[in-house]
């Protein structure tokens, strides 16, 4: 009788620890946070644009420096499933008139011209029509 309870306790303990030994079973969604920065939009940013044009192009900045309102920070943080998060920061500097004097992107954004890894390209095959008497081919 005591032997059955010991065996059942061992089986229960092994079944509980077996779940924790397998990694990455639970699905995790991609979590983008901040301003979604696209390479095409950042490439359109130019010195000499005013603040309204920058805000139309990139959206409202995540942070405007409270001590110097001439600096806008656009921060984009992307975490895909179990990968380490990747952060991109764009700093836009304005002069006193509100015109862009410089901008700096800390690291390059992913190129949108490259196809995504998880997107499959489906192409239809050219199938010639068959005669009714060649149905076995």
From TrEMBL:
<comment type="similarity">
    <text>Belongs to the BamE family.</text>
</comment>
<protein>
    <recommendedName>
        <fullName>Outer membrane protein assembly factor BamE</fullName>
    </recommendedName>
</protein>
<keyword id="KW-0564">Palmitate</keyword>
<dbReference type="Pfam" id="PF04355">
    <property type="entry name" value="BamE"/>
</dbReference>
<keyword id="KW-0998">Cell outer membrane</keyword>
<keyword id="KW-0732">Signal</keyword>
<feature type="domain" description="Outer membrane protein assembly factor BamE">
    <location>
        <begin position="34"/>
        <end position="102"/>
    </location>
</feature>
<comment type="function">
    <text>Part of the outer membrane protein assembly complex, which is involved in assembly and insertion of beta-barrel proteins into the outer membrane.</text>
</comment>
<feature type="signal peptide">
    <location>
        <begin position="1"/>
        <end position="20"/>
    </location>
</feature>
<dbReference type="InterPro" id="IPR007450">
    <property type="entry name" value="BamE_dom"/>
</dbReference>
<dbReference type="InterPro" id="IPR026592">
    <property type="entry name" value="BamE"/>
</dbReference>
<keyword id="KW-0472">Membrane</keyword>
<comment type="subunit">
    <text>Part of the Bam complex.</text>
</comment>
<keyword id="KW-0449">Lipoprotein</keyword>
<dbReference type="InterPro" id="IPR037873">
    <property type="entry name" value="BamE-like"/>
</dbReference>
